[in-house]
Amino acid sequence: MIAMFEAIAGAFRSLFSLHMLWLMIWPVMVAITLWAVLAFAFWTPLQNAWLWLYDYFGIAEWMTGIEPSWIGVILQVLLHLMLFVPLVMLTALVLTAIFGMDAMVKTVGERFFPQMEKRRGGGVIGSTANAFVAVVVYLGLWIVTLPLWLLGPVGALIPFITAGYLNQRLFRYDALAIHADAVELKAVIEQNRGGLWALGILLGLVQFVPLLNFFAPVFTGLAFIHYCLGKLRERREQSGALPV
Known about the structure:
single chain; mainly alpha; elongated
């Protein structure tokens, strides 16, 4: 738990530079623009598909019977936001992971882990495969669990759990790829699954808060870099492997 909050504090300290500011802005803006254009261009088929899902899962009948009727309208708007926001955040997170992680790892490494040896156990193929698996599994979980989001307090937790999966799966590999060798990379992930999940879920909360979600992709990436490199340093110190 302490390591998780230290990682978040480290991510906050790493945010304040022009480079990080640019990384915070452009992936989210590109993602919003992309999905807004797609929604405008394909509004009719998307609306039809959405209405079909309503009917298939019995949501339309349930909302029709809600009194007063304005509550049903509000719920429908919320459901559309549940569709739009995760897609925007997914796109922004993937863009950040692909185009920003190398720069973020370099920044954090030079400032907070200057003596840590770079053993380069990861590579482009591993990073691409990891991102692909993260996105496919997340989309599968998101689609399967979407009807459950309306099931009261329990359903409200599902978006954060799926976001937690995406965060830890998407960023953990790239956070370690430059500094860890292949054995270390696998070991750090295996030995810290609980912490990675907890960090992913906690940061998932930020992704659903208006305005703060602009900072979420870069902040999430930085937090995972701090957490993973901190765990890698602990592993090397315990094994006596130097330099750390």
